[in-house]
Amino acid sequence: MTLDEIKAIVRTVPDFPKPGILFRDVTTLVGNGPGFAAAVELMAERARAVGAEAIAGIEARGFIFGAAIASRLGLGFVSVRKPGKLPVPVLAIDYALEYGTDTLEVDPEAVAEGQHVVLVDDLLATGGTALAAVELLRRAGARVDHALFAIDLFELGGGERLKRAGVAADGLLAFEGH
């Protein structure tokens, strides 16, 4: 399956969550067996090419892609969670959202010191969540210099923000707009 064929599976929902936004709905891709398999395979090839030793995914849809990629490569999966979901002492980071703040957490024993972890999420917009996850994984001892996304909304600048933090952002599918 070509990238254009995979991209055609992603549904665009206008005016969600507010007027003027074109929401790129990855659930249609996840729900399409051949499309999802092709996307995971292509992303796994990219993670393999950069020498991933583990895959980290951001809750929630990053879990879908990240766990599938980790399984495909025979690697461990590291969960970057929302607060209060892990049953052990955690490392946590607060980060800014458009309106307010949010928190991410990780089990500090989930990665080995210096382990090369590739971060995965479904969508890259402004990069705020991804940057917080990178910092959190680095605090846990991981080496994080690559991030993979099913969709990159490149006009929103997340890739550039990650680059400035020493992380190469790789979007499988690029979409214009918000």
Automatic annotation (TrEMBL):
InterPro entries: Ade_phspho_trans, PRTase-like, PRTase_dom, UPRTase/APRTase. GO terms for molecular function: adenine phosphoribosyltransferase activity. Keywords: Cytoplasm, Glycosyltransferase, Purine salvage, Transferase. It catalyses: AMP + diphosphate = 5-phospho-alpha-D-ribose 1-diphosphate + adenine. Gene3D superfamilies: 3.40.50.2020. Pathway: Purine metabolism; AMP biosynthesis via salvage pathway; AMP from adenine: step 1/1. Its main location: cytoplasm. Residues 51-143 form the Phosphoribosyltransferase domain. CDD domains: PRTases_typeI. Its EC number is 2.4.2.7. It is an enzyme of class 2 (transferase). It is found in: Cytoplasm. Catalyzes a salvage reaction resulting in the formation of AMP, that is energically less costly than de novo synthesis. Homodimer. Belongs to the purine/pyrimidine phosphoribosyltransferase family. This is Adenine phosphoribosyltransferase. It comes from Novosphingobium clariflavum.
